[in-house]
Design brief:
Number of domains: 1
Strand content: 15-25%
Distance between the termini: 8 Å
Number of helices: 7
Number of strands: 11
Order of helices and strands: EHEEEEEHHEHEHEEEHH
Radius of gyration: 16 Å
Shape: globular
CATH architecture: 3-Layer(aba) Sandwich
């Protein structure tokens, strides 16, 4: 069965934070050339109301947070997350999904939402370089790492800013499938995959 990859959308989400991972996982399915897609990728909003990303791009979520397929891999992108941090229902939804997913990951300031949900407590994480100090100040229980593209804590993975979400997503493709597919996907995207020097062992679903 395909791995269900859900990407959460909200007003003022950073476009590449969600579009980068979306492209990586859908491209991985294309280059796989299997009988069925490896990944089913969809977006989830708090509701079905259109979301306006930073710079005004309008997106219609595929599903709402109270009515969506089961999620195997949840991606929480960044952007301006101030309003989302104050939504108890959103934080609770992230908490509940993380209990069921194989992987929950953040891009950029999406790490603040994971931290607010308690998913980074006692763990290492990273975010956009500009927000490192704020993440440390707001969530002192998180070991915030600087100068890395992503941090893999097993079930929880976080990435640095914007384009680092593509690097992390390729890493997740490798974890969920294999190295060769991740490399083929990066080549198809014409993307210079920047890796961390140390990564955790793979955990294959497919």
């Amino acid at each position: 069965m395909p791995v269900n990859v859900a990407i959460y959308l909200f007003d003022n989400v950073e476009v590449l934070d969600f579009a980068g991972p979306y492209e990586v996982f859908t491209c991985a399915s294309r280059v796989h050339h299997g009988d069925s897609p490896l990944f089913t990728v969809f977006t989830v909003g708090e509701s079905l109301k259109p979301v306006h990303a930073r710079a005004g791009l309008k997106i219609d979520p595929d599903f709402s947070s109270d009515n969506h397929p089961a999620i195997d891999c949840l991606i929480i992108p960044g952007g301006v997350v101030t309003a989302e941090l104050e939504k108890a229902n959103v934080i609770e939804w992230i908490q509940q999904q993380a209990l069921k997913t194989t992987l929950t990951a953040s891009v950029c300031t999406g790490a603040f939402l994971l931290a607010k949900a308690g998913l980074l407590t006692g763990k290492s994480a990273t975010t956009h370089w500009e927000d490192i100090d704020d993440l440390r100040a707001m969530f002192p229980q998180v070991a915030v790492k600087q100068g890395v593209r992503w941090v893999d804590e097993g079930a929880i993975v976080s990435s640095a800013g914007i384009s680092a979400g593509i690097d992390m997503s390729l890493h997740l493709v490798e974890r969920l499938t294999d190295r060769r597919l991740a490399e083929r996907t990066a080549r198809q995207l014409d993307f210079d995959w920047t890796e961390n020097k140390k990564m955790r062992p793979q955990a294959h679903l497919i």
